[in-house]
Amino acid sequence: MAHYGERTQPDYIRSVRRIAVGIVVFVLIALFLLWRIDNARVERLRVALVDRFVPSFEWTLKPLAAAGRMIGDFQAYNRVYEQNNELRRELQRMQAWREVALQLEQKNAKLLAINNVRLNPGLTYVTGEIVSDPGSPFSRSAMVNVGTVDGVEDGAAAMDGLGLVGRIAGVASRSSRIIFLTDTSSRVPVIVLPSGQRAVASGDNSSAPVLEFLEQSDAVSVGDRVVTSGAGGLYPPDILLGRVVDDGHGRHRVRPAADYGRLDFVRVVRSRPATAIEGPGGLIGPLRPESVGSLASDTGAEEQQ
């Protein structure tokens, strides 16, 4: 705090600052006007100023040019980074569409197999759609929208386009219940190819039924085909179940060919009733005249004896 009577020093810094700012503003305005004037003398003056001052500031222009290149490179890198992110998002979308296409392709292949499969001439089939899946941890089954009006009978085999799915267990007029191969109540007589070993595929609520009652388990190898044997008359013969796999505990199992994860349509086999034969019919042809004469003579000889 200044004492009373002391003289205060004049503030020269503020005055000098104002003068310097005024000079800079004047120079900038002058340069602006100089560069805007379209005159030959002024053009020569501009060229002379550029030749005089630009070389002396070359050391400052190089860092500015390098900084400009760095800014341009950073902007280009930023554009590349954004394009890369966009390509990644597009790749994810394409992968999702690829998965959808693969699922549709598999579904189309199964539908084509259902429509073009060749069965025994004595068998027919009806194709139905899975309408619900009432399965539980203790039951493996599903409902299909075909029933007695479609000729479906209890115990009929059900297949998809790849292999055996199960059998019909419970039929209504317009719906049926399918017991899958993996259900605990499922027992299918099978043949393992190419060894020809007979066995029974028993479901245990796992994804792969167990092969039981194998005569020679050493003759069965992983990857062998498993088909129905037709024993018992419940399942038609030569229907594919799947392939043999090893569960790691010394037991052979069957990995089903049917895709239970995407089971949309099934084909239910209908068996034609056997034709009743009454009398010989056309099995015995008409007798020839000479055969009739020889038969009559033989009968007369027997009577005389």
Fold and architecture overview:
The protein contains 4 helices and 12 strands. Among the domains are: 12-53; 123-271, Thrombin, subunit H. It is 37% helix and 23% strand. A 6-stranded antiparallel beta barrel has the order 1-2-5-4-3-12. Strands 8-7-6-9-10-11 form a 6-stranded antiparallel beta sheet, with no helix packed on it. The chain is α+β, with helices and mostly antiparallel strands. It starts with 11 loop residues before the first helix and ends with a helix. The mean pLDDT is 77. β6 (187-193) and β7 form a beta hairpin. The protein has helices spanning 12-36, 40-53, 58-116, 289-304, and strands spanning 123-132, 141-144, 157-159, 164-171, 176-180, 187-193, 197-202, 210-212, 225-228, 240-246, 252-256, 265-271.
DSSP helical segment count:
4
**Class by SSE composition:** alpha+beta
What composes the largest sheet?
A: 6 strands, antiparallel, barrel
| Low confidence ranges | none
Mean pLDDT level: 77
Helix percent reads: 25-40%
How many strand units? 12
Top CATH class of the domain at 123-271: Mainly Beta
- What general outline do the C-alpha atoms trace? rod-shaped
CATH superfamily of the domain at 123-271: Rod shape-determining protein MreC, domain 1
User: Which strand order does the major sheet show?
Assistant: 1-2-5-4-3-12
Rg, nearest Å: 48 Å
CATH topology call of the domain at 123-271: Thrombin, subunit H
